[in-house]
Amino acid sequence: MTLLFYRYPGCQESHLRRRYRNHLLGSDETITQDMINSAHQEDLAELERFKQDFADLMDRAMKLQPNSESDVILNLKEDIDRLYEQCAGLAGDPTPYKKGLTRLMEVIMAAVRKGADKDPAAHDQLNQEELARTQHYELLKLPLISHLLRSDSPIKACELAAVILGEDVDNARTILELFDPEHIIELKNQAEALLKDEAGAIQGAPFAGSILDLLRQYANDTKEMM
Fold this sequence. Notes:
By secondary structure, the protein is an all-alpha fold. The protein contains ten helices and no strands. The chain has two domains: 11-148, no CATH class; 156-225, no CATH class.
């Protein structure tokens, strides 16, 4: 029986889709339509909670005063980053929320820069912060990044190598930016163990061989730097 997945899945349904398509994550027979429907409802419930958090954040921002204390600004910035990271992996199209959060961050950072006045060290620190944020937001164009960063991610540590092998090479390269050298080596070892008895194309993981080569390259580069 053909299973039906929704067009814009959230975190829970996305992982079922990965398991359904990726032979390295188990048999397709373990996934049912009821499981998909249940995961979709869970994702929709999370979306509704996010919408409330988003509205509360905007309300707090509207009430912000020019003389607000630094910890109030800091908490607001942290919540913007947290909600941006969350919305990148939600069900539906996150674009409107990303735009709203990005615009709000720009307004707040402009106010912070104004408060820093002519302090070169403060402005340098703000430049570094904005660069790091831009790079992080770029990674979050891939919803899987958001799913991996969740404290309650449905992706188990033992599944991580299989999940990466099920992506295309560009996505795999993006995902690997999250990991330090020691984890890259560990992922390479796990991937080799998964693929040692496989020959040719793998169901749901057509780029597994190329991604394994990429992991080996990264691991080798890491060892040379040690």
